[in-house]
Design goal:
Layout lengths: L9 E6 L3 H9 L3 E2 L7 E4 L1 H4 L7 E2 L7 H11 L3 E5 L12 H19 L6 E7 L6 H10 L5 E4 L2 E2 L2 E2 L6 H9 L3 E4 L15 H20 L2 H4 L3 E4 L10 H10 L10 H5 L3 E3 L5 H11 L4 E2 L13 H6 L5 H17 L3
Parallel strand pairs: 1-5, 5-6, 6-7, 7-10, 10-11, 11-12, 12-13
Antiparallel strand pairs: 2-3, 3-4, 8-9
Length: 337
Amino acid sequence: MSETPPPEVIDVHAHALPMPLLAWLAGRGLADLSGVADGVVRIDPMVSGIPKGAPIPLPPAQYDVAERLADMRKMGVTRQLVSLPPFVTCADAVDEDEVLAVARRGNDALAELLAGHRGVLDPLGQVPIGTPAARDEALRCLDELGCAGIALGTRGLGGELDNPVHEPLWELLAERRTFVFLHPSSVPGGPRLADYWLPQLAGFPMETALAVSRLVLGGVLERHDLRLCLAHGGGCLPSLPGRLDLGWSRKPVARTTPLPPSDYLRRLYYDTATFSTPLLRRLVEDVGVDHVLVGTDYPFELADTDPLGTVAALGLAPADAHAVQAGTASALLRGAR
């Protein structure tokens, strides 16, 4: 008797940090690789957005494809959509030329790292926010590098996602039906987030909520039909529809769209990286099982190492579980052109 094949699981939220990118940054004085053997790297604040000298975790799986593939087998993941981590997105930089140089070098290195493994490891091209060149880099990633989709940060070069400079980018992504993964690339900021790893623990979820609120109230999601998936289950955003709708109904300055904000939020997609079964179950109830996709945040320490268990804990019908594990993501990727 033949063995039953393992279930298909597409992880839309995984990261890689290619060593050639780090070496290039080091050659420009923007990275310190002396701690690589100990599993850390230090990257200049212009690139990383974190304080100078702060150690960034660098497990070998960030740059070693063989280790990544072995971990995927252990986790039951059959395909990863891989994006660069937020620590190389230059979200708080002010020099446009530097930002574009890092983005292009990063996309080239990511595509090269995953070459030969497409269909199992597929890159999401990182597009810099805040520059009119964002559209051109997205097009290069899709057409020249063969990326499966596009990854975006939440801000850059002093610009927010609803800045008019991004209209050509949104037009391209909507026209091409591109899968877009939105990951926080900065935090709201301030000394209150300086301790306890709070930028990642609390700052990232808040940043996503702010960025997507601007996409909604700025009319971007009214003007463009985007296939947009949010990291970390949307962060704090799933707790805001009622409040955003209240503001839309009672505050003229927030009445910017023909429909209330909750209508637009239900059009988006959300990954499963909430790390709470009750929260994830409520997210499925609120946006629908066909708008939730597996995301692990691999290979960081704050990752879901058992995505099949995460979905199983929801107690979904088999067809619904398949939709979360792979069905919806596969359909979104097939729809791209």
